[in-house]
Write a structure and sequence with these properties.
The complex is a heterotrimer of chains A (240), B (234) and C (259). Chain A has 240 residues and is an alpha+beta fold. Chain A has four helices and 17 strands. Chain A folds into three domains: 54 residues, Beta Barrel (OB fold (Dihydrolipoamide Acetyltransferase, E2P)); 74 residues, OB fold (Dihydrolipoamide Acetyltransferase, E2P) (Beta Barrel); 80 residues, Ribosomal Protein S8, Chain: A, domain 1. Chain A is 18% helix and 32% strand. In chain A, the strands form four sheets. Chain A has a five-stranded mixed barrel. Chain A has a four-stranded antiparallel beta sheet with strand order 1-3-6-5, with no helix packed on it. In chain A, a hairpin with a 4-residue loop joins strand 16 and strand 17. Chain B has one domain: Ribosomal Protein S5, domain 2, CATH 3.30.230.70. In chain B, strand 2 and strand 3 form a beta hairpin. Chain B has four helices and nine strands, in the order E-E-E-E-H-E-H-E-E-H-E-E-H. Chain B has 234 residues and is an alpha+beta fold. Chain C has 259 residues and is an alpha+beta fold. In chain C, strands 1, 2, 3, 4, 5 and 6 form a six-stranded mixed beta sheet that branches. The chains are: A alpha+beta (240), B alpha+beta (234), C alpha+beta (259).
Chain lengths: 240, 234, 259
């Protein structure tokens, strides 16, 4: 007989026994030890039938192939840029992976300089090395904007179903917003608008697991933008 | 006559404790642990790229612990700032006490830095540091098989006691000081040292009493880790 | 291009800051807590400015005076930028940033004779009180200079003398008297940053990293100034200096109320 020791949406700590018996299966953030299923991370329990999964509440981003991320140039050699993407290793951007033609021996900093921020895609993750590419739509060097950091596991909530949440924030604040899967968010607009967009994103992060969040955020934005003059909408709404 | 504890505690009784996580917001993980008058703050930075590169391990991440007493935190004289032989050894055994629960294979070429600072000391500092560090690691979202809960036991006049304080450490008749760390789920020992002369029986008793006492510490660690997020979720 | 600095400058041009504060406004939450290490330290304090947190402790010892001041106690300030407090601080021997911070806090306390060192003489030429002030940031969210000097000041105010044992010639730490340190003036340090042509106080870490020049000014109750330290790579006009000192005096008055 199997015994479930936790409920859906419980917060658990590493080492906590989540279930006993062979009827349940451990997924992300949990592992099996003999008859027991044990948490390996501080997280929120997510139960789907017999599968027990943890959604991390904290911690650094885990790089995944195909993710679009925002990073900062921290180092360069003759042929590569090194990019801090907020995880355990720096990302590597080879000069072959940028859209510009870079001549051999050129000074790489004239293309992407120290402390500049870029939107890039992870195209390969191998042990201890993360390869980035700038070839693709929306991948670019970022202009001046406000940066906000969120826990990467909350990013899906900030984007929302088919981008609904972020679109709502963009529309209400008239800001261009780019959300990196690594939890770095770039916002560009008028200062008050950037401020409101950042505040809203932090609110979504904090309340990511509450129900009826879309309504709550919609109301929040409504109260905050009440009485503000709506600027004419531009064609450029930014992108995720 | 059997030894009676100076502050009137029962032999297996811990001093009042306090634990809190997220106390250093600029860090990836952090925790404060107070037991009696001993106050430890632990912070985790990382996992992050390890520099210089020759220190990197392509097989797995590196754990680096750093134990330090603030200059004013000692009993009596000021502690000279900077590392010394004692603090280096404690940093080293702290690392070994934490390693059994960590899975570092996910982090090749990276480092997890753990910094432990003592704000005030009344014995049991390395154990308080390890208890705080385990919470800080969990708070940083590092994958762990378990937490680590540590307590210093003592043998005074043939009596085994849990959580010795400075007055007991300085007991005139001499004593055996046994810092211990446990993995709560299976009760295994990841820190074991002894200063003093004791019997083998006393050692076994100390481990037994220490293990029981560490369960209370573990409950507090769990509570502190959850509390912060339960507050935020609501 | 440094994007973070660019953004800060863009806001400053509109007299705005990242967190919505005015240019010359400190963060609202400033707290001073006394006696945070009462068992170990003769005096201690914790200062929080927003999320920035600094602790300071005072230890007292009896030692030999300097030959040129045989009847005066000795004061020493030591600040260490702990790697704990900021992921970019490194372990190892004190960096120049730690040393500068120590020296600037030291200067404020020393130059106005905050501590009456003549009253710290136990036996002329042989034994005097030595005061060690150790400062540690716990969380760096900007403005460590002002927080550190405030913490040092509060720890000194919190300190009580231990007993000096005439027979052994040593300090008996087990007994503390009710005697405070002989303190008089209270220097308040305010650091003013110049970024492009704007002056701000109480910087965030990003603002600190973007500064062109800075001036730390220690002021007294009567508006006199007792220590200065100019930092940063850009030069200041005399008009700048005048404005920065003026601002520091004004802000110093606000901070003084918290003590």
């Amino acid at each position: 007989m199997s015994n479930l020791l936790i409920k859906d949406r419980d917060i658990v700590v590493p080492g906590e026994v989540l279930a006993e018996g062979m009827d349940y299966l451990p997924s992300g953030g949990a592992f099996r030890e003999g008859e027991k299923i044990i948490a390996s991370q501080l997280g929120l329990v997510y139960l789907a039938n017999r599968v027990i999964k943890l959604i991390p509440l904290t911690g650094k981003y885990t790089p995944k192939r195909g993710d679009t991320i925002i990073g900062r140039i921290v180092e360069m050699t003759f042929s590569n840029w090194f990019v801090d993407i907020g995880c355990s290793n720096d990302g590597v951007l080879s000069l072959r992976e940028v859209p510009e033609y870079v001549e051999k021996g050129a000074d790489l900093s004239t293309y992407y300089g120290f402390n500049e921020y870029i939107v890039a895609k992870i195209y390969k993750v191998t042990r201890g090395s993360i390869d980035l590419s700038m070839k693709g739509p929306g991948l670019r060097k970022l202009g001046t904007g406000k940066l906000v950091k969120v826990v990467s596991s909350k990013v899906p909530r900030i984007i929302g179903k088919e981008g609904s949440m972020i679109k709502m924030i963009k529309d209400a604040t008239d800001c261009r917003i780019t959300v990196g899967q690594n939890g770095i968010v770039w916002i560009q607009g008028e200062p008050e608008d950037e401020f409101l967009a950042a505040e809203t994103i932090k609110l979504v992060e904090r309340k990511a697991h509450t129900e009826g969040l879309t309504d709550e955020i919609s109301k929040f934005l409504e109260t905050k933008t009440k009485g503000r003059k709506k600027k004419p909408t531009t064609d450029d709404k930014g992108e995720e | 006559m059997a030894y009676k504890r100076l502050d009137g505690r029962k032999n297996d009784e811990l001093r009042p404790m306090e634990a809190k996580t997220g106390v250093v917001p600029s860090a990836d993980g952090s925790a404060m642990f107070k037991i009696g008058k001993t106050i430890a703050i632990a912070v985790v930075h990382g996992p992050r790229e390890l520099h210089p590169k020759f220190l990197q391990n392509p097989e797995k991440g590196v754990l680096r612990c750093n134990y330090n007493m603030m200059a004013f935190s000692g009993s009596g004289d000021r502690v000279r700032p900077g590392p010394n032989r004692r603090s280096k050894e404690i940093s080293y055994v702290t690392e070994k006490a934490l390693l059994p629960v960590l899975d570092l294979s996910k982090y090749p070429n990276a480092v997890i830095d753990v910094y432990v600072e003592l704000l005030q000391t009344d014995a049991g500092t390395r154990c308080a540091g390890i208890t705080a560090a385990a919470m800080a690691l969990a708070d940083a979202g590092i994958p762990m098989k378990d937490l680590v809960s540590a307590v210093a036991c003592g043998v005074i006049d043939g009596t085994v006691v849990a959580d010795v304080d400075k007055a007991e450490e300085d007991y005139e008749g001499g004593m055996g000081d046994i810092p211990l760390a446990f993995l709560p789920r299976n009760g295994e020992v990841s820190l074991l040292q002894l200063d003093g002369v004791i019997t083998k029986d006393d050692l076994n008793k100390a481990i037994e009493i220490g293990r029981k006492a560490s369960e209370k510490i573990y409950e507090l660690q769990k509570k502190a880790l959850k509390e912060r997020f339960e507050r935020e979720e609501k | 291009m440094n994007m973070i600095k660019d953004h800060i400058v863009k806001l400053l041009e509109k007299d705005m800051r990242e967190d919505g504060r005015k240019l010359t406004e400190y963060r609202k939450e400033i707290t001073i807590e006394y006696g945070v290490s009462p068992k170990s330290a003769e005096g201690s304090a914790r200062v929080r400015i927003g999320k920035t947190e600094v602790v300071a402790g005072v230890k007292l010892d009896a030692g030999t005076p300097f030959p040129d001041t045989p009847d005066q106690g000795v004061m020493m300030v030591n600040a260490e930028l702990l790697p704990l407090s900021n992921p970019n601080f490194e372990s190892g021997p004190p960096s120049i940033d730690s040393i500068e911070l120590s020296r600037v806090v030291d200067r404020g306390i020393r130059e106005c004779h905050m501590i009456d060192t003549h009253k710290l003489c136990i036996k002329e030429g042989e034994k005097v009180w030595m005061i060690f002030i150790d400062i540690y940031p716990i969380n760096d969210d900007g403005n460590l200079f002002d927080a550190a000097s405030l913490a040092a000041l509060a720890a000194l105010k919190d300190a009580r003398m231990p007993k000096f044992n005439e027979e052994t010639g040593k300090v008996d730490y087990s007994e503390r008297t009710k005697e405070p340190l002989p303190l008089s003036y209270e220097p308040i340090e305010v650091t003013v940053l110049k970024i492009k042509d704007k002056l701000i106080v109480d910087p965030s870490v990003d603002e600190w990293n973007s500064l062109d020049a800075r001036l730390t000014v220690a002021t007294l109750k009567d508006g006199k100034i007792c220590a200065l330290q100019k930092g940063g790579g850009a030069a200041l006009t005399s008009e700048d200096v005048d404005n920065m000192v003026e601002l520091a005096i004004e802000k110093g008055k606000e901070l003084r109320k918290l003590l």
